[in-house]
Specification:
The complex is a heterodimer of chains A (335) and B (145). Chain A contains 11 helices and 8 strands. In chain A, helix 2 (61-74) runs parallel beside helix 3 (94-105) and helix 7 (209-222) crosses helix 9. Chain A has 335 residues and is of the alpha/beta class. Chain B is built from 4 helices and 4 strands, in the order E-H-E-H-E-H-E-H. Chain B has helices spanning 23-32, 54-62, 83-101, 118-135, and strands at residues 14-19, 41-46, 67-72, 108-112. Chain B starts with 13 loop residues before the first strand and ends in a 10-residue tail after the last helix. The chains are: A alpha/beta (335), B alpha/beta (145). Chains A and B meet through helix 7, helix 9 and helix 11 of A and helix 2, helix 3, strand 4 and helix 4 of B. Bound molecules: iron/sulfur cluster (3 copies). Residues 230, 236, 238, 241-242, 267, 270 of chain A line the site of one iron/sulfur cluster (SF4).
């Protein structure tokens, strides 16, 4: 881990001083001890701000898209021949590289506008699981020691196995090593447990219809529509999202619970074949809505119906952007 | 749309999104051939089944439809060549997803009816109406306000 951090800083410094990138997106120590925050650095001297530890959670691909588009928008009044491109570097684990693949497939930016510094990933800590393990005690300091996390709290110190508090997305991750990269740092990480990927979905599918609806409504009742899940999601890059569209208004903003349910159905459905299961939305949700249970279903169906895994390779287009004469149609009603 | 829920003579309201070139023409043929079918369906004509945003289906359910039907040209016969093939992928996923969250599968139906299939159009409407009737009035996802 230490070693990877050192190499990352080295690579970042090199990229910035050789002007191979105009900005680099990485993680820095957050304001709380159990937090690593996304950061954007533009000077080689800033490279030492970068950290790499199991608190690095959110998917940085979102920031790559944001930076490139902000730059493009700042040039709308510039003559076309005077417009410049900015190259963004990014520290990318497996899921981040898959999100970048999706951006590239969806023609959001060119491959040469992004420099991918690939890092092997052994998973990140889900903050909710950490808090559960601490039984409410506030972590004052955290340090990684081998396989465990040593946490100092007001009640004393505690050692927790990192494996026990990893995000659900990480536990069953299929791509914890970058799927594309320009520079690689560290040795490839050992595989996680992708075989159990759909266990949750399978179990849920076997519940009676009304129980499934009850669970869906219970979860969505928690949602306060802060849209943090959408804002952090790399696949949610629309300039005007349907939730803000008002001509016509797609989804109501009333207190009626169906409005929230419809928002969630559509937000989740927009991820069909595009969700890389990075778990960022789950991680940032202040209310602990179980979004993954529903997102993972789309992932499963995407593979089941079209043998597609989101962002796996540049050659495999998103399933809903393609078609085949031979697609299954057993759902078609024939009277 | 929920006003008649308590009524013993409840009749389902079904919203059908149909494509201009095949299914709508099929409905026309059923009409001019005087083929009888249940009056529970409201047709909404769109250029193509590929034009049907999955959101339309969800929105119809939220606004109180007891069932939603989407119908277009048979695969290979799309006026726009491949619109219905994209639609097929979208709706394969949508139907599974809506069933997964607990909306009865029979509330969202998808089919193909060509311009020459007036008889089939009537049968589709009969079939869908029967299935939705068997489920009873929709109670999920409906906007109360
Ligand atoms: S929906 Fe959530 S898990 Fe999926 S790509 Fe977006 S942020 Fe990641
Ligand atoms: S929820 Fe849908 S419309 Fe909104 S940003 Fe995400 S993908 Fe775009
Ligand atoms: S982050 Fe959570 S509470 Fe906020 S809109 Fe998303 S699901 Fe709802």
């Amino acid at each position: 881990m230490e070693n990877i951090e050192k190499q990352l800083r080295e690579e970042a410094r090199k990229l910035l001083s050789e002007k191979k990138v105009d900005a680099l997106v990485g993680y820095e120590q957050g304001t709380l001890p159990y937090q690593a925050a996304p950061c954007i650095i533009t000077e080689p001297e800033e490279a030492d701000r970068l950290v790499w530890n199991p608190f690095c959670s959110v998917n940085l691909a979102k920031y790559v898209h944001d930076l490139i588009f902000q730059h493009r928008e700042s040039q709308t009044r510039t003559k076309p021949e005077d417009r410049t491109k900015k190259v963004v570097g990014v520290i990318a684990r497996g899921c981040t590289t898959r999100s970048i693949v999706i951006h590239l497939q969806e023609r959001q930016y060119e491959r040469n506008e992004v420099v991918i510094v690939g890092v092997p990933c052994t998973g990140y800590i889900a903050k909710r699981k950490l808090f559960r393990a601490l039984e409410g005690a506030e972590p004052l300091a955290c340090a990684v020691e081998g396989d465990s996390l040593k946490v100092e709290t007001a009640q004393g110190s505690k050692s927790i196995l990192i494996r026990d508090i990893l995000s659900d997305s990480c536990l069953t991750c299929r791509y914890n090593n970058p799927v594309i990269s320009d520079i690689n740092v560290g040795e490839p990480a050992p595989p996680m447990n992708p075989d159990g990927e759909y266990n949750d979905v399978d179990a849920f599918e076997n519940l009676p219809t009304d129980e499934r609806w009850a669970y869906f409504t219970k979860e969505m009742d928690k949602c306060i529509r802060c849209y943090a899940c959408r804002n952090t999601c790399p696949s949610c890059y629309c300039k005007v999202c349907f939730v803000e569209q008002s001509q016509p208004r797609w989804v109501g903003v009333s207190v009626d619970e169906s409005d929230t349910q419809v928002f969630q159905i559509m937000r989740i459905f927009h991820q069909a074949g595009r969700c890389v299961d990075c778990g960022s939305c789950v991680e940032v949700c202040p209310m602990g809505v179980d979004l993954r249970k529903f997102l993972k279903k789309l992932d499963k169906d995407g593979f089941d119906l079209f043998e597609h895994r989101a962002g796996e390779s540049l050659e495999d287009p998103p399933p809903l952007g393609a078609f085949s004469t031979y697609d299954k149609e057993d759902f078609i009603f024939e009277p | 749309m929920t006003e008649n829920n308590t009524n013993e003579n409840w009749e389902p309201k079904i919203v059908a999104f149909v494509c201009n070139w095949c299914t709508y023409a099929g409905a026309d043929l059923a009409g001019i051939s005087r083929i009888q079918y249940p009056p529970n369906v409201r047709l909404i004509r769109l250029p193509c089944s590929g034009r049907v945003n999955p959101f339309y289906v969800v929105k119809a359910l939220q606004e109180g439809a007891d069932g939603v039907l989407v119908s277009g040209c048979h695969p290979g016969e799309c006026h726009y060549l491949t619109g219905n093939l994209s639609a097929r992928r979208k709706f394969a996923m949508l139907k599974r997803f809506l069933s997964y969250i607990g909306i009865e599968p029979d509330r969202t139906m998808f089919t193909w009816v060509s311009a020459s299939e007036g008889e089939k159009f009537a049968n589709v409407i009969k079939g869908v109406t029967e299935r939705v009737k068997a489920l009873g009035p929709a109670e999920k996802l409906i906007k109360a306000l």
